[in-house]
Amino acid sequence: MAYEIPVTQARAELADLINRVVYGGERVVVTRHGKPLVALVSAADLERLDALDASAGEQLAGSVSAVRDMASVSRERQRLGMTAEHLGPDLS
Predict the structure, then answer these.
(1) Are residues 61 and 52 in contact, defined by beta-carbon separation less than 8 angstroms?
(2) Rounded CA gap, 7 and 14, in Å?
(3) What are the boundaries of each domain within the chain?
(4) Is the pLDDT of residue 11 over 90?
(5) Which of 13, 39, 56, 83 has the smallest set of CB atoms within 10 Å of its CB?
């Protein structure tokens, strides 16, 4: 769980908060009116988050590409008047 601190207090304790993140391995959530505003995380945590974002983006791009390919095949079948597909001898 992350340590939560109001933004007004965080301003006064920024150096201490940075030390808690860097040396203590903590994550700090700065709040305004009790709602999360920003988070202080280590550079290593940020790298992991960036890697997850990149991986999710690649998966999404692959999914969109696969759907686009399937839609293209479907449109081409309609254009050619094809209503059935041969699946091969062992895929009946």
Answers:
(1) no
(2) 10
(3) 3-41, 42-81
(4) yes
(5) 83
